[in-house]
Each structure stands twice: as structure tokens, then as C-alpha cells.
Amino acid sequence: DSKGPAFQVRPFPGSNLPAQALHRANPPLRHDNTEQPMPQTNEGEFLKFTNVRKTYDQKTLVVKDFNLHIRQGEFVTLLGPSGSGKTTVLMMLAGFENVTSGAITVSGLPITKTAPHKRNIGMVFQNYALFPHMTVAENLAYPLKVRSMPGAQIKDRVAHYLKLIELGQF
Hints:
Elements: E1 6-11, E2 45-55, E3 61-71, E4 74-79, H1 86-94, E5 101-106, E6 109-110, H2 136-146, H3 151-164
Antiparallel strand pairs: 1-4, 2-3, 2-5, 5-6
Helix pairs in contact: 2-3
């Protein structure tokens, strides 16, 4: 499919979202708006992309009128062919790429012009970006240590998320 990334929305394991969050009445949103967009609602809205565009050369849009509304606890997967804008959208969310136009909000607060280190958003890069000399748990704990979180809290949080994603044995 060369029309861009499609979005699959389902509750995150352990979330308390209602079953209807798994199946929406409207088809998934596509970044080129070829499908009907998801219903617009502020109730429980967590992450919102509004008419986001990105160009690197001021001529060709690599992301065109991207609109996405995600409620707290939803798990969203971006699917699409190479070059369709998936990574660019995530890089704009994390703040590693600037938005050419449009807005990104988290919990109703604009983050489009917020520095990456002030967004409190984690990023897992598609290229190898783990510390090879560390275990999975140590890699997860590293950013928490950098933020000076207490050791016991780091241990609990890492254990919780490793169990959640079924990687506790690693």
C-alpha cells in the first residue's frame, strides 16, 4: 500500500479501556486523509496531531495533513511501506524533527515547540541504539538513572514494564 501508514488502535495490555476501543466505528486514519478520520473528541484525549505537515526541502511534503487522536491507554501501531512517514511522525512527536506546520498536543498542552528533553517522551530508535554491554533491564533503567530516580523506584518500574511486555527473563 503506497498511500501511507495505516493505524491500528487497540487497548494496551493491562489498560482499563472499554472493549469498544478495540473496534472503532470509523476506518483507521491515514496520513493522506484517504480514509474517514477518527471521531473528534476531547474526552480522554491524550495525544493529538492536528494538520501536521513536514517538508525538508520546502517543496515536497513527506507528511501531509497528518491528524491522529489517541486516548490515554490506547496502543497505536503505525504500519506502512518504507518512506511513508512513520519514522518522521515519531521523530516529530519526540522533538527530534521540527514540525513544518500544524500542532502536536499531549494532554491538551502544545508540545510542538517544546525541546525534546522537556517532553518526557521515550523513543526507541529503529536502528541499534541499546548499550550492548548492558542487560535489557539495565538499558531500561538507564534513562531513569539519568533523571536521578531513586534506585528502589527504578527497580520496581523496570520489573513492572519487563513483566508487562513479557521480557522479565531477559
